[in-house]
């Protein structure tokens, strides 16, 4: 099996998981892989939107169900949580739509919204629309700027199994950045 076939089979799953766990880096990588012809652009955008939507729905449900649990209480102690609730109270629909685009508020916001009085149905629909826009935007950016990224890599065209190493390194790098961001938010 070639690396192109491996990425074709598992690439969209990686974009889905990466969008939910890490965020923009993996979605931009999905757009880059679509630019290189290894994924379909619509497939990458749908996987990104779905991964983001599912993760945010899970965080919302956790905030709603476990608002008195120590895990949610720990999140409530963070300054970002207070900012999220304050903004949510002033602009509920706009905040639900925009939180995924705001650095530092992406993970804590759906938990904060879950602890609020926002109806589940309201969050679900606004979250779905925002996830579709976010997935299309960031996948599109990776696709459009794919040529520039490829040129930055110095016209490196790996052959055979080398693609496996390049793709693996990109995925690991994305997860490493996500873990560092999570660790900083957890301690801050």
From TrEMBL:
<keyword id="KW-0472">Membrane</keyword>
<dbReference type="InterPro" id="IPR051311">
    <property type="entry name" value="DedA_domain"/>
</dbReference>
<keyword id="KW-0812">Transmembrane</keyword>
<dbReference type="InterPro" id="IPR032816">
    <property type="entry name" value="VTT_dom"/>
</dbReference>
<dbReference type="Pfam" id="PF09335">
    <property type="entry name" value="VTT_dom"/>
</dbReference>
<protein>
    <submittedName>
        <fullName>DedA family protein</fullName>
    </submittedName>
</protein>
<keyword id="KW-1133">Transmembrane helix</keyword>
<feature type="transmembrane region" description="Helical">
    <location>
        <begin position="12"/>
        <end position="33"/>
    </location>
</feature>
<feature type="transmembrane region" description="Helical">
    <location>
        <begin position="39"/>
        <end position="63"/>
    </location>
</feature>
<feature type="domain" description="VTT">
    <location>
        <begin position="23"/>
        <end position="143"/>
    </location>
</feature>
<feature type="transmembrane region" description="Helical">
    <location>
        <begin position="123"/>
        <end position="143"/>
    </location>
</feature>
<feature type="transmembrane region" description="Helical">
    <location>
        <begin position="163"/>
        <end position="183"/>
    </location>
</feature>
